[in-house]
Automatic annotation (TrEMBL):
Its cofactor is FMN. Signal peptide: none annotated. Residues 11-369 form the FMN hydroxy acid dehydrogenase domain. Glyoxylate binds at Y37, Y142, R177, H267, R270. PROSITE patterns: FMN_HYDROXY_ACID_DH_1, FMN_HYDROXY_ACID_DH_2. FMN binds at P90, S91, A92, S119, Q140, T168, K244, S265, G321, R322. This is Alpha-hydroxy-acid oxidizing enzyme. The lineage of its organism: Bacteria, Thermotogati, Deinococcota, Deinococci, Deinococcales. SUPFAM superfamilies: FMN-linked oxidoreductases. Keywords: Flavoprotein, FMN, Oxidoreductase.
Length: 369
């Protein structure tokens, strides 16, 4: 196994005491093109900031004099055991962060008993990542206008050991990340999107105006898909389906009625600016789903107390978008592992200080919104 530690000395990674320290290391390792792609949100980035602010506003109501000599953070998602309710959200193009790209992320997820969600737009083919993740991965689908191609990706994902299909529903078009428009974000020539297109096809995408990615995605993605079409998707794969990008009780009810699990997300503030934070959307969704489906959340999770608050309010697990990317940029597999470990340790301590020794003890009474 190659371990590239290109930019961050091992000491600096070891000395990182929180995810903000790792973010600083990750940012320092990236060039402007990659950094702006990872960091940006849509338009004025209100939702991007609000995802964090909402967690901070919520206050904890800790219980005391509980035996917390042994705190157990373990849980499961769709039957897959996890060391803690922390997974990795799908993000495109891990090759911008590190030469080991998605392979490093997958190995980290496996090593830490977590789960990685592999983006349709990975720089590494599904099969390679599947081998590294050893069953600890879900596949994220962007439905392409070419349905046969979409179907083929689902078959490949299942054959590679994916345990669920994460169907992203908040991005018929990409949101406008203005800094990417201004600086014409483009995928470097050495990286491809092998699940989706040949390098030649990518090279032909117009780069003279705006973000190459937004231009490319506009032609590729299916924008016609509705709730009625979910029956079609259901027929294409036996995997459990998770709808990623749900923000309202109304849509959560529809998701549950269609037999889907619910991933509460505003895409890290990259799609509809001023959309509600995922943490604030969570309670009405938990109420509406009423136990019919599993509920996950992403957006702004960087502290153990964030994990605790989301789980207390009914999320089965939370997922890391940028936090995982900063770890990957900082030090490849080691960096992602360190990110997961630090957050899990913070979560364990937060549980202990809340008087909760088991995941089942995390209830809404611990949180004042
Ligand atoms: C650089 C980047 C690329 C992303 N690519 C995808 C993607 O390919 N598919 C997808 O469903 N979501 C994608 N997302 C959204 C993430 O899955 C997730 O919803 C979001 O990053 C969570 O917010 P956080 O970054 O604050 O943790 C991407 C996010 C970022 C930052
Ligand atoms: C065409 C890849 C889209 C990736 C994505 O979802 C994002 O940049 O937020």
């Amino acid at each position: 196994m190659t371990l590239h530690n290109l930019n961050t000395p091992g000491d600096a990674l070891r000395d990182a005491v929180n995810l903000a320290d790792i973010e600083a290391l990750g940012r320092a390792a990236l060039d402007r093109n990659a950094l702006e792609y990872y960091a940006s949100g849509a338009n004025d980035e209100h939702t991007l900031r609000e995802n964090r602010a909402a967690f901070t506003r919520a206050r904890l109501r800790p219980r005391v004099l509980v035996d917390v000599s042994g705190v157990d953070t373990r849980t499961s998602v769709l039957g897959l055991p996890l060391s803690s309710p922390i997974g990795i959200a799908p993000s495109a193009f891990h090759g911008l962060a590190h030469p080991d790209a998605e392979r490093a992320t997958a190995r980290a997820a496996h090593a830490r008993d977590s789960v990685m969600t592999l983006s349709t737009f990975s720089n590494t083919p599904i099969e390679t990542v599947g081998a590294d993740a050893q069953g600890r991965f879900w596949f994220q689908l962007y439905l392409l206008r070419d349905r046969a191609h979409s179907r083929a990706m689902l078959d490949r994902a299942q054959a590679a050991g994916a345990r669920a299909l994460v169907f992203t529903v908040d991005a018929p078009y990409l949101g406008r990340r203005e800094v990417n428009e201004r600086h014409r974000f483009a995928l470097p020539a050495h990286l491809g999107a092998p699940n989706v297109a040949s390098r030649d096809a990518l090279a032909q995408v117009e780069t003279d105006s705006g973000s190459q990615l937004a231009n490319y995605f506009r032609d590729l993605a299916d924008k016609t898909f509705t709730w009625h079409d979910l029956a079609w998707l259901r027929e294409q794969t036996p995997l459990p389906i998770i709808l990623k990008g749900i923000l309202t009780a109304e849509d959560a009810v529809l998701a549950a009625e269609h037999g889907c699990h619910v991933w509460v997300s505003n895409h890290g503030g990259r799609q509809l600016d001023t959309a509600i934070s995922s943490f604030e959307a969570l309670p009405e969704i938990v109420d509406a789903v009423a136990g019919r489906s599993e509920i996950y959340l992403d957006g702004g999770v960087t502290r153990g107390t964030d994990v605790l608050k989301a789980v207390a309010l009914g999320a089965r697990a939370v997922f890391l978008g940028r936090a995982a990317l900063w770890g990957l940029a900082a030090a490849g597999q080691n960096g992602v592992e360190r990110t997961l470990t630090l957050l899990e340790d913070e979560f364990r301590l937060a549980m202990a200080l809340c008087g909760a020794a088991r995941i089942e003890h995390l209830t809404p009474a611990l949180v004042r919104l």
